[in-house]
Write a structure and sequence with these properties.
Blueprint: E1 2-3, E2 6-7, H1 22-50, H2 59-93, H3 102-123
Antiparallel strand pairs: 1-2
Helix pairs in contact: 1-2, 2-3
Amino acid sequence: MSSSHGPLPTATRGGDESEPDPRFTLANERTFLTWLSTSLALSAAGVAVAAMPQQVFLPWMRTLIAVLLVLLAALAAGMAYPRWRRVQRALRRGEPLPAPSIAPLLGYGVAAVAVLALVLILLGQ
């Protein structure tokens, strides 16, 4: 791949580190920030569920959903930086990118919370 300014800088293979294409570094940074935004959204959702009126779900149900959402938020925030660091290292070494272990955990976690909330809604508590 090349640009109007000549070939793009690439990392070398074999564990030697070099400066990756800035576009890849910035894309990696945007992904990191997106995981943090996701974490903030999950935290806000957990607080909102915890603050629901007494008539919405039984107290233990509200607490369970709120705790699960906040735990998912902590997971997203806690795993975001190590993921950024692993991807950045791979970019610098010209290695394949590491598998996104954070994505399945959050995907299945949010799906589980959604199914739990749906069951509670359908059962009418």
